[in-house]
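If you are new to this repository, start here. Below is one unmodified record pulled from the training split, so you can see the exact layout before writing a loader.
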Amino acid sequence: MAERLLVTGGAGFMGSNFVQYLLSFSNEFEITVLDALTYAGSISNLSKVADRINFIHGDIRNVELVEDICLNIDTIVNFAAETHNDNSLSGPDVFINTNIHGTYNLIQSAIKNNIRFHQISTDEVYGDMPINSKERFDETTPFKPSSPYSASKAAADLLVKAWHRSFGLQATISHSSNNFGPNQFPEKFIPFSLRLVRDGKKMKIYGNGRNVRDWLYVEDHSSAILSILKRGKIGESYNISNEQLYNNLEVAEMINTAFNKPKDNFEFIEDRPGHDLQYAMSSEKIREQTGWEPKGPSLNQWLGSLNN
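And here is the target side for that same chain:
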């Protein structure tokens, strides 16, 4: 009998890629997608698998809806979140309501119905480190969030941990580095930059462009989540990283090269408040415990393929 899987936020960038990844090679899951279809989610992201899923337009903050859906679910994978740092600085309320209260609703229903729960989180909960640091965040690194977005994700993670310990929630958590790949909403740095370049405009880079991010192909993220669902240990957290560290200037140079643009095809803009300097994570634990390995492509390879 197929495992009944609820993917919340499944019409967004990472969620839709995860759903398509599962259905590309497996019939072992009966998938329900719950998505509020806010500005960053689109049903078109699931068009290739629309006839193989049960789609529900709704919000994880809706207690009655969540409880009704969870009567017939075995596992929840929670991608649903507000994720844009800039928006969290100008309007944090929706981040608190969705990322914290929404997650609370899900874990309460998971407890009530004995549902396995996996929380999708971010490396941003760990805060940042100095540029050019050789350190790596691991699963024991204390949380030190810098923005309302990362603080709300850290709070949700702590709820999951507390409900596991106090109420027996059968849960795991994953912290992913920055994803890249198809269907990413254009508010994020790479798709936004690609749109500007294709429109013949210069890219916009915060501050001095030296901020470093850890980049991961979205299908590698999907395969990592599946490996945790299959072989991860209940109660554990796992960092997901390919340890591809590039600053924003280096990413801009890759994009300019891929699209045959001048190296200086960008302009600096005022930095955002609290802008984290560098993220870098160790993925040793997930590799050792589940056997997961990223397969790529690298960020440079993927960007190069877009202009073919």
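Two things worth knowing about this chain: Residues 93-112 form the longest helix (20 residues). DSSP finds ten helices and twelve strands in the chain.
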